[in-house]
């Protein structure tokens, strides 16, 4: 029989896992079965509940693979309620906040700084965090051109000193607060912005998002503008601005796996079929890069992949659940032993490259197929289910199949079963689960699958709260001990303004 203390620890562990699932999947945007307001209200409650009751664990979640939206919300919540923390907690939170800001896309950070100013958070620690982040920016002049209002808001809030003279910071100060006072700027981007007001040739020297406005002002033809701006465009900008019929000069294999899956699904079937070799090769290369040291280490892997109509997502997250499933399909193929992977789509489709959101969600039938022994009569070592959890053909069959399988056919747990869900259920304050005994984790990017499988085992009930806390402590130590400048650069060049 559990003691009261153990019961309290168990509740705390369950709450933290629930929040982790939400922070990974939810972005406050509309989903297939819930509106944006429902999502936002649900997230508001969860953030307040975890911050008040488990502040240390709330801050530690910054070290997990949560999405940028929730990372920014956590930072804002910690800064806004600094008075509720002890001195030691504030020191740890400050380090976690600084490390997380360094990994966020700059536009997201500037947006966060604007929320900090509107909330009236102006204590010394907050100003120090903002000043340190601004000082670490590789080129504040570039930021001043591309994120002008954000830099201006942050500089005002922290009372950034911009000296007079020809120093770089002085030029940025003049550019932001005294436009037109200097006849020219030494910084090439600042001066290009000045010249772009009357000189078309300077437009192509600016960041693409800024150059678009000047191109429209000068009445430049779109084709001419895109050709001139191409050298300064990021991979995603080139993909967004070229039509389907055009072939942008982009190394698809270098793209992040889930982002690449979204691009593939946006192509018509004819384009996918015509470029099968190129697209499949790029997906496999990205999957091998994402698997890293885990490649080939998962043994026999069977997967159930949801391509039902609900995988179409919403207007704000178009085809996102299906893209996660497609990316997981290729990643699991790499994680499995050579020739030991089997992927089953709920629609019965056998061609992964041509999947589309269609039909009901017969998860139970596909789980039955996936649990059948593979070549040699051996059961799979792992069964991975990638779905939003709405098993409806017939309803509840998947949970019953897994319950009977675990109780009668595999009590020794020879087959590890895990369900990863890319959709947040606002009504349940969690991702939807198939059955109580099936470990479930939220997922946003397929690249995080190996880490999420490790988190999911805590939800299975075979490990205690102490193990979960130890895991979080390890993640925090690793997070604070690494300088991930490569990921910071990737964020800036790849994520753009997308959530």
Provide an overview of this structure:
It is a single chain. The chain is mainly alpha-helical and about 500 residues long. The chain is built from 23 helices and seven strands. It has a five-stranded parallel β-sheet with strand order 2-1-3-4-7, sandwiched between helices. β3, α20 and β4 form a beta-alpha-beta unit. The protein is globular and about 80 Å long. The two termini are about 45 Å apart. The relative contact order is 0.12.
Main beta sheet: strand number and arrangement? 5 strands, parallel
DSSP strand tally: 7
Helix content: 40-55%
Number of helical segments? 23
- Runs in which pLDDT lies below 50 for 5 or more consecutive residues are 1-5, 483-499
Neighbour order of strands in the largest sheet: 2-1-3-4-7
Summed over residues and divided by their number, the pLDDT gives a mean of 88
Query: How would you spell out the order of helices and strands?
Result: HHHHHHHHHHHHHHHHHEHEHEHEEEEHHH
CA radius of gyration: 25 Å
Q: What share of residues are in beta strands?
A: 5-15%
What distance separates the N and C termini?
46 Å
Structural class: mainly alpha
Query: Could you say which overall geometry the principal axes of the C-alpha atoms support?
Result: globular
């Amino acid at each position: 029989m559990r003691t009261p203390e153990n019961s309290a620890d168990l509740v705390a562990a369950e709450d933290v896992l629930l929040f982790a699932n939400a922070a990974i999947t939810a972005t406050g945007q509309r989903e297939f079965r819930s509106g944006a307001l429902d999502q936002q209200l649900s997230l508001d409650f969860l953030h307040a509940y975890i911050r008040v009751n488990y502040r240390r664990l709330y801050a530690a979640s910054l070290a997990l693979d949560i999405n940028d939206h929730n990372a920014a919300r956590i930072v804002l919540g910690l800064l806004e309620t600094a008075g509720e923390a002890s001195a030691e907690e504030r020191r740890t939170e400050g380090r976690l906040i600084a490390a997380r800001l360094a990994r966020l896309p700059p536009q997201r950070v500037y947006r966060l700084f604007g929320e900090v100013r509107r909330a009236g958070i102006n204590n010394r620690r907050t100003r120090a965090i903002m000043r340190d982040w601004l000082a670490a920016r590789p080129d504040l002049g570039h930021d001043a051109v591309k994120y002008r209002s954000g830099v201006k808001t942050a500089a005002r809030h922290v009372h950034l000193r911009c000296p007079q003279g020809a120093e770089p910071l002085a030029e940025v100060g003049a550019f932001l607060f005294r436009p037109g006072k200097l006849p020219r700027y030494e910084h090439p981007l600042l001066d290009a912005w000045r010249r772009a007001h009357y000189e078309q040739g300077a437009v192509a020297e600016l960041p693409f998002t800024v150059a678009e406005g000047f191109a429209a002002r000068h009445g430049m033809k779109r084709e001419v503008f895109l050709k001139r701006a191409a050298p300064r465009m990021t991979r995603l900008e080139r993909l967004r601005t070229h039509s389907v019929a055009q072939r942008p000069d982009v190394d698809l294999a270098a793209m992040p796996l889930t982002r690449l899956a979204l691009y593939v699904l946006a192509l018509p079937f004819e384009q996918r079929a015509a470029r099968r070799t190129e697209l499949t090769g790029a997906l496999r290369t990205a999957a091998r890069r994402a698997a890293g040291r885990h490649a080939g280490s998962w043994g026999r892997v069977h997967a159930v992949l949801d391509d039902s109509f609900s995988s179409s997502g919403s207007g704000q997250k178009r085809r996102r659940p299906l893209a996660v499933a497609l990316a997981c399909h290729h990643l699991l193929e790499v994680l499995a032993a050579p020739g030991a992977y089997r992927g089953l789509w709920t629609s019965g489709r056998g061609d992964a490259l041509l999947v589309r959101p269609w039909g009901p969600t017969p998860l139970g039938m596909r789980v039955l197929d996936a649990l059948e022994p593979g070549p040699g009569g051996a059961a799979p070592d792992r069964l991975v289910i990638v779905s939003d959890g709405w098993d409806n053909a017939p309803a509840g069959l998947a949970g019953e199949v897994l319950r009977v399988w675990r109780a009668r056919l595999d009590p020794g747990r020879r087959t590890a079963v895990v369900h990863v869900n890319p959709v947040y259920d606002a009504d349940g304050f969690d991702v939807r689960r198939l059955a109580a005994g099936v470990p479930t984790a939220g997922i946003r990017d397929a690249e995080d699958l190996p880490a999420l499988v490790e988190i999911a085992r805590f939800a299975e009930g075979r490990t205690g709260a102490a193990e979960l806390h130890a895991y979080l402590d390890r993640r925090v130590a690793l997070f604070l001990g690494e300088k991930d400048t490569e990921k910071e650069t990737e964020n800036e060049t790849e994520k753009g303004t997308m959530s």
